[in-house]
# Entry
Amino acid sequence: MLEETARSLASIFLFKDLPADALKRIEARCRWRDFKPQEQMIDFQDDTQDVFFITSGVARVVNYSVSGREIAFDDLKPGSIFGELAAIDGEPRSATVVAITDTTVATMHPQIFRSVMEEHPTVALCLMRRLTQMVRVSVERIMDLSTLGANNRIYAELLRLAKPTLQPDGTGRIEPIPIHSEMASRVSTTRETVARVLSDLSRKGLVKRTGSVLVLTDTDRLRDMVEQFRGD
# Structure
């Protein structure tokens, strides 16, 4: 049963509105691959164009500065896709993707991917929404890097990570607790700065650790702290 779940596209957000028979036909047009932790899945500037659908495991989207420092953009979980940009425009890969855990993916040839979008308008619309979201997140991150100091970039990243879990009482959860070096990579600062900021927020009662969960106790106040400096 676990193997069947890992090799099914039912969890992929692009295909959530498709009937079971259509999903089966799409699955038959895919190839399946397994990756080990730290195994590279695609490489920056590579000219391959296949699209990847993650059905189990976690992968990380990264790039590297001229000095070799890793810059992390996102962690991709089951249900995610990547590689769609190259499949659409035929240009080289815009980032490197590395498996973080044992990861199973379905891969699809770019021509088949484009055909699927033509055959199923709901899939094309879902992809458009995904690309729109990517643009919005990119603009937000550019604004953070341009207008915020390191401390406030960390506050903003905490809010971003907790966004899917925000509650009416202003609390939010991040699970698992972010690794300091990974968060530093995301917001272009140092691991030591992340550790110091999280300790300061803990002393102020704005974050607390509960097992493997980091709880944000007052996201409204954190947001105010970010916005206070964004306009300077």
User: Anything to note?
Assistant: The mean pLDDT is 91. The two ends are 55 Å apart (CA to CA).
